[in-house]
Amino acid sequence: MLLAVACGPSTPSGGKSSGNEKLVVGFAQIGQESGWRDAETASIQFYAGQNLDTIDLKFADAQQKQENQIKAIKSFIEMGVDVIGVAPVVETGWDAVFTEAKDAGIPIVLVDRMASVDESLYATFIGSDFIEEGKNAAIEMSALLGGTGKIVQLEGTVGASAANDRKKGFEDEIAANHPGIEIIASQTGDFTRAKGKEVMESFLKTYGSDIKGIYGHNDDMALGAIEAIKEAGLKPGSDIVVVSVDGVKGIFEAMAAGEANVTVECNPLLGPQFFDVCQTLKDGGTVEKWIKSDEGIFRADTAAADLPNRKY
Ligand code: GZL
After folding, report:
1. Does the Cβ of 266 fall within 6 Å of ligand 1?
2. Closest listed residue to residue 77, CA positions, set 52, 92, 60
3. With a 6 A CB cut-off, is 39 part of the ligand 1 pocket?
4. Are the beta carbons of 78 and 84 closer than 8 angstroms?
5. Is the CB of 37 under 6 A from ligand 1?
6. pLDDT-flagged residues of the chain (< 50)
7. d(CA 248, CA 252)
8. Which of 157, 266, 270 to mutate to test the pocket of ligand 1 (most atoms within 8 A of CB)?
9. What is the DSSP letter of 198?
């Protein structure tokens, strides 16, 4: 795990809160598993770097291990930071360390993924409605296939709220309104491009051209699947339609090239909102329990025009 003072000199601070005129924030990031994650990290570090006189950011990269995130949170508590931000890699296993933070008078801000803990253990969740994202992906998939077809699903990290809810939103919508769409295989690709390609290769070996669509819980896995589809001699975007979530530049390039069809946007540029919430909490203010990201749905027909405007 890298625990680096990402921006500014480390400010010794003890006691219940930093007692320091600077806003001292600890952020326990998941890792670098996707382009989306890298964009979020950049947003957080860039904002802190632009405000060195008022923000002291301590940043930890947990390399996708929950135990590293927990270690980082404990170290932030030791340091007596003002606020702790965390993108929980999985939903469960947070009660004890969040209780330690609460007992130390340090608020927890959940960023981009939820934790299944009592509401009293965190100040707010800044992030998307993953169920809505899954539902929208299902509607788009069904429209692309004219309501009928066998599809496969590449799921995100096992236990992650973004994976759990994108799966639930998608499957509930299909079951309720699109009886002709059949999910013939579903497996985790851990939100990474490499694993997404590997799993898609195995799906293609088993089902071949029976597969008419792939739903990826993120664009990175869908981009891996596109590589596998091409290597199997099929055309992504037409033989097999591609629907995924995030809205990273790479999927816009694939859509513009006719190799993907839809991406449901999930905004990673949460740095400004995150630090705004942290300052409010440091100043004793209150925040909404869920600060929901606004996001759109982007399709191949506008991808080339959209691409220059994309910020991540
Ligand atoms: C969503 C975030 C997810 C992205 C993936 O808020 O947690 O994690 O959709 C990333 O790309 O790995």
Report:
1. yes
2. 60
3. no
4. no
5. yes
6. 1-2, 5-16
7. 7
8. 266
9. H
From 43, 191, 193, 295, the mutation candidate for ligand 1 (largest count of ligand atoms within 8 A of CB) is 191
How many angstroms separate the Cα of 293 from the Cα of each of 83, 167, 206, 264?
A: 21, 19, 38, 12
For residue range 110-146, list pLDDT tens digits in order.
Answer: 999 999 999 999 999 999 999 999 999 999 999 999 9
The topology (CATH level 3) of 10-127+268-293 is Rossmann fold (3.40.50)
The whole-angstrom separation of Cα 105 and Cα 159 is 28
Count of beta carbons in the 10 Å neighbourhood of residue 15 = 10
Q: Which CATH architecture has domain 130-266?
A: 3-Layer(aba) Sandwich (3.40)
Tell me the residue type at 4.
A
**Range(s) of the chain covered by CATH 3.40.50.2300:** 10-127+268-293, 130-266
- Report which secondary-structure segment, H or E, holds 148: none
Ligand 1: which atom is nearest the Cα of residue 192?
12
Q: What is the pTM of this model?
A: 0.94
Alpha carbons 216 and 222: distance in angstroms, whole number: 5
Please indicate whether residue 125, judged by its CB atom, sits closer than 6 Å to ligand 1: no
Looking at the CA of residue 157, tell me the nearest atom of ligand 1.
12
**Is 133 near ligand 1, meaning CB less than 6 Å away?**
no
